Amino acid sequence: MENDYCPTNHGSFEASVNLFIDPSQKTQIIDALSKVENIEEIYDVAGEYDIVSIVSAKSVEEFRNVLRKKIMKIKGVKSTIVSVVLKVHKRPDSSLNKTHIY
Questions:
Q1: CA-to-CA distance for 89 and 3, rounded, in angstroms?
Q2: Helix, strand, coil tally for the chain in percent (to 5)
Q3: What phi, psi does 3 have (nearest 5°)?
Q4: Among the listed residues 54, 65, 46, the one whose alpha carbon sits nearest the alpha carbon of residue 17
Q5: Interacting residues of 43 by C-beta distance below 8 A, sequence separation 6+
Q6: What is the pLDDT of residue 1?
Q7: pLDDT value at position 42?
Q8: What pLDDT score was predicted for residue 93?
Q9: Closest Cα partner for 17 from 39, 47, 48, 46?
Q10: What pLDDT, on the 0 to 100 scale, is given for residue 6?
Q11: Torsion angle of alpha carbons 30, 31, 37, 43, nearest 10°?
Q12: Nearest to 38 by CA among 56, 51, 58
């Protein structure tokens, strides 16, 4: 089922923030990102980017502040590429993320 938009915990604006980082600072960067309230998900990835995060906010202005005043201020974050979520087609069910014992 398609949704025009499925608000996240913080509001109606959501974006993927892809980070290029100093690899020697990766652990500290992930720790710092984990403390940013608006960051819903953090992924250590292989590929073009070093870290992918999902950020939610109540507005574009709040998102801009999180990006500029929190994420970009973390030591070791070199640059970011942002992709704004326009429409959610499928979202993981949180119950699927639970550990299952077989």
A1: 6
A2: 25, 30, 40
A3: -120, 140
A4: 54
A5: 51, 52, 53
A6: 38
A7: 98
A8: 72
A9: 39
A10: 46
A11: 30
A12: 56
> What's the token pair of residue 58?
């109540």
Q: What is the pLDDT along the chain (102 residues), one digit of tens a residue?
A: 344 444 455 558 999 999 999 999 999 999 999 999 999 999 999 999 999 999 999 999 999 999 999 999 999 999 999 999 998 898 877 544 445 454
Type of residue at 70:
K
The total number of residues shown for the chain amounts to: 102
Asked: is 13-88 a CATH 3.30.70.920 domain? The reply is: yes
Q: Could you tell me which of 61, 63, 62, 36 has the C-alpha nearest to residue 51?
A: 36
Q: 3-state class of 53 per DSSP?
A: strand
The counts of H helices and E strands in the chain are 2, 4
Q: How far apart are CA 97 and CA 54, in angstroms?
A: 16
